[in-house]
Structure formats: structure tokens, C-alpha cells
Amino acid sequence: xxxxxxxxxxxxxxxxxxxxxxxxxxxxxxxxxxxxxxxxxxxxxxxxxxxxxxxxxxxxxxxxxxxxxxxxxxxxxxxxxxxxxxxxxxxxxxxxxxxxxxxxxxxxxxxxxxxxxxxxxxxxxxxxxxxxxxxxxxxxxxxxxxxxxxxxxxxxxxxxxxxxxxxxxxxxxxxxxxxxxxxxxxxxxxxxxxxxxxxxxxxxxxxxxxxxxxxxxxxxxxxxxxxxxxxxxxxxxxxxxxxxxxxxxxxxxxxxxxxxxxxxxxxxxxxxxxxxxxxxxxxxxxxxxxxxxxxxxxxxxxxxxxxxxxxxxxxxxxxxxxxxxxxxxxxxxxxxxxxxxxxxxxxxxxxxxxxxxxxxxxxxxxxxxxxxxxxxxxxxxxxxxxxxxxxxxxxxxxxxxxxxxxxxxxxxxxxxxxxxxxxxxxxxxxxxxxxxxxxxxxxxxxxxxxxxxxxxxxxxxxxxxxxxxxxxxxxxxxxxxxxxxxxxxxxxxxxxxxxxxxxxxxxxxxxxxxxxxxxxxxxxxxxxxxxxxxxxxxxxxxxxxxxxxxxxxxx
Length: 555
Ligand SMILES: C=C(OP(=O)(O)O)C(=O)O
Description:
With about 550 residues, the chain is an alpha/beta fold. The chain folds into three domains: about 10-30 and about 170-235, Glucose Oxidase, domain 1; about 35-145, Orthogonal Bundle (Enzyme I, Chain A, domain 2), CATH 1.10.274.10; about 260-555, Phosphoenolpyruvate-binding domains (TIM Barrel, Alpha-Beta Barrel). The protein is built from 23 helices and 17 strands. The protein has helices at about 45-65, 70-85, 85-95, 100-120, 125-145, 150-155, 170-175, 195-200, 215, 275-285, 295-300, 310-325, 355-360, 365-380, 395-415, 430, 435-440, 450-455, 470-480, 500-510, 515-530, 535-540, 545-555, and strands at about 10, 15, 20-30, 165, 185, 205-210, 225-230, 235, 260, 265-270, 290-295, 330, 385-390, 420-425, 445, 490, 510-515. It is globular and about 80 Å long. The site of phosphoenolpyruvate has 11 residues, from strand 11 and helix 18.
């Protein structure tokens, strides 16, 4: 009989990106932990401290405005308006009267306003909250004498071995500034939030929603911990090693990226990747086909690229070179979602909240500059790799026609004659009703199931329930859209990386599965062993409940 292993068990979470990993924990405290515990001085004295902090922040914002492009000046100006807003002053006054010291009063006031603004029916307030909160954080940093973001980044940078980052939540923009961790554990966060997707694409295991603070806080800085991707469990580490131990690609011969199914059909397996380094590493063992490169992350890392075509050509070129001559990369045009937000993406405040073709129509310079850079990168650095450009958030044939005309015009202007394919994402339910009409002018469709599902069930991506994946209406819609499609249909949403859904997507006609690095090998194995004759769609379409569908898919 085997001797039972006794190791410290810390907690359980949802594995948003599979794979095992271990490393020393770096715990990033939430912002409220930075608040001083000191006794309050008199209300007047605390008010004076706050007023001084606000003045310094206003001064900083005013100085920073100089020489910035118009959209940034506009944002900095609004941040100053916010810091002088009577709503903020009133909330601060309430907190001071309740006896809180200056930083705590400001923190609490910002929490109250966050709720008010983000739940407001007014688009302007909702969309501007990110900027307002940022201005509030600047004052808080001044009052505390430390920068919250810099302090967190410094802890990760100085952790030595590749650490496991443990945090309540983590913004994608902050993650993009850190060195790659071995893994991430979040008390909150959602499995299809953009931080989870970013990490998954880099093959970094991530556990989210680990639940109660008490369990979560048993992990302290420097504890060596081990994450088990399959079970979502976190233990004390058996050995001190920081490499990902479960998600790596096989060594030896370079794998082809097409898989011949048992019935002779050929499907392609591609990678969702957001950086050249991951693509390069993958390319050591595989012929590379990137099915989704989210270009907004490139810009979030370095917003100045947006207005610098020469440097963006170099950045796209690096990605194409990483894919190699026989590879292909599907670049998705800029897609600005709430949690991939940067004020730099908008030249006019009124454009915030626009997405897809509406955004491209409103921001023609950014739109055309991006397409030009992509063709130019293919000319200068592509050396035969296939360039694929994909438009997100397409709703109607008119949306697609608008993007396609711009692609054709820029291709002609650039003189690029290499391999090129133009496609669109299907991630808004209304697109499913026009796929058939659009297919004559589309080289490929790509199913964005992360967004598609959220729009069908009307939920935010950070509040998923495991059962949502089995929503009957979702499958009926997919079937309706795809039943007469002759073009390539890819899937780049996370459902394509879950083996239980593979037979169904094959039956629906998907021929290209684009998945995060951590899921690549598992999906490849499953596709090679799958029985492609399995038929479940008809029965599934008759099912009325999520439970029935779950059982059918899992059995
Ligand atoms: C791949 C998708 O796009 P994103 O996750 O970037 O919104 C999707 O919605 O499935």
C-alpha cells in the first residue's frame, strides 16, 4: 500500500488555463492593505492633508498634459475635473466625518463612487470610471508616499525564481508590465476574463475564484507552492522547481499542425498567442499556425505603437518572423473591450464604448494605420508566412463589407502579393444570421465563443456559472448559423480548448481549432483519437435543459 502523502493543502480554484506549475509565492496585497492604521487627526487636519494631496495630483496632471496627443490631453483634463467634482468632495466629507484618516477616507469615497459610476445608466460615467479611478489612485499614492502599481511590480521583479503571483485580482495592463510568472492564483477574476486568456495563451497556469479570503490568505510570500491544473488544487511544493511541468510541448520532430481524423478529414490545430516569444518557443517543436493574435495587447504593452507606424511594423514583423516561413498568423484587428481599455484607443471621448466596425468608422486613422502596418510587416518580414487578418465584433454584411473594402484598398496600395486571407469573428448572435450571405466574400469565419455565449445568456464574462456552457439556445443559434457554410470555420474561443466539446464542433463543421498553449497537446491527442462519425447534434438540438445537454456532452 502506498504511504499517504502529507502536504499542506492550501486551496481550490477554477483552472482557467490548464497545466501544473510550482514556484515561490509572491502575494500582491489589495490596495486597501496599504492604508495606514494610524489614528485620525482632527477632521480639519485630515481634510487639509487631502486637499494638499489633491492639489499635488492636479499639478502633476497639468504638467503631464504638455506635449501629449489630443486624446490624452482630453483624458488628463477630465481627470482634473473629476478631482474637483463636488460628488468626490461630498463623499470624502462623509468619510472624514465618520472618523477616517485622509487616505482611508479617500479610498472609501472612491469605492462608493465606483459603485455609483459603474452601475450608472449613463454611458459617459460608466466608461470614464477607469480614468477617474486612476486619478483617485494618483492622490492615494501621494498620500501614502508609495505607488501601488510600482510596489506590486517590484515585488514580482525581485522575487528571484519565476514566482507564482497570488492576488485578489489583477488588471491585464499591470500583468503586461511584469516578468512572466510561473503561475497565477486569483481570489476573484473570471475564467474567461482577458487576464485569464492572456495567461493561458502564454501557457501560464491560472486559477481563479479561489473563494474565501481566509483560505486564500494562508499562502504567504516565499511559500513554495504547487498548482495542479487538472484539479485546481494548490499544495505546498514537493520540490523547489519553478518551471511549468504539465503544459509543455513534446520534444523531437517538429509536428505538423494539421491532423487527419479517422475518416480522412483534415483539421488544423492552431495556437492563440499574444506575444512573439510564445510563438517562437512553440515553433521549435511545431509548424506554427496562430489562429488568434489579439493585437490590442501589443498596444496595451506600449500605447505609443498606436501612433508610430514604423515601430508597429517592426512589432508585427517580429511576430511573423517568430511564426517562420511555413507558418501563418491570424492578426485580429484592434478590439477594445471593457477590461482591455486604454484612453489611447480613442481620439474623441464620444467614441468610447464603440466596438467593431462602429469603432473603425469613428477612428479611421487608427484603423487604416493598423492595416497598413500589417501589410508592410508582411512585405518586410513575412518571407512567405501566411498573413491572415480578422475583424472582431462583426454584426452585419455591411460591417464586413466596410472592413473588407479597407483591407482590399490597403493591400493594393501596399503592393503586397503574398499569401493573404481575410476573415471575421462570429461573436455577436446577429452575425450568425448573416453568415450565409457573407460567405462568398469571407475567407474564413472564427467562432468567438467567449463573447458569443455571454451575449446569448446576457451575462458579464467575469460572472460565469459552469452551467452556462450548456445553454440550449446557444447550440440552436450555432447550428442555425453554420448549417449551410462552405467556408473555413475556425474556433478561437475557449470552448474549442475543452475536449468535451470537440466532437460537437467537428459535427458543426469546424475545421480549425485555435487553443491556448496549455491546452494544445491535450486537444491534439483528443482530435487524433476522436471518432468523427459520432453524431449528437440532432439529439442535442431537441434538448430543453442545460442538465440534459451537459450529460450528453460529458458522457
Ligand atoms: C476569442 C474571443 O475573443 P476575446 O476573448 O478576445 O473577446 C471570444 O470572444 O471568444
